[in-house]
Write the structure tokens for this entry.
Amino acid sequence: MKIKLTSIYVDDQEKALAFYTGVLGFTKKADFSNGPFRWLTVVSAEEPDGTELQLALNDNPAAKIYQQAIFKQGQPALMLFTDDIKGDHERIKAKGGAFAMAPTDVTGSTIAKLEDGCGNLIQITELARW
């Protein structure tokens, strides 16, 4: 069994696509519409056949309440992993990424948090090398 898809709610799919591809460096995988519904996914450029991230519109009232509540609590909606958090931090900042927390050492890893501009906090983690 494998995880092939996970979703994140966004308040604007075009803005989210620009952030996840232009700022984070992901690649658009799927983009099609059926009436007002748009199926939009991105993948890591490092793993083009890896897990897809659906950028789901938060037009469902429950989705919007959930998204706003976890953002207000400071809880990341998505966790990404890297082998070079300081390099990614600088690259993302140079492309306009807004960090809520710069790379910070915590037990077993270094983490940073940034806003995606579409209602979410994203955590980037570099695991400690022992």
About this structure: Residues 26 and 46 are 8 Å apart (CA to CA). The chain has three helices and eight strands.
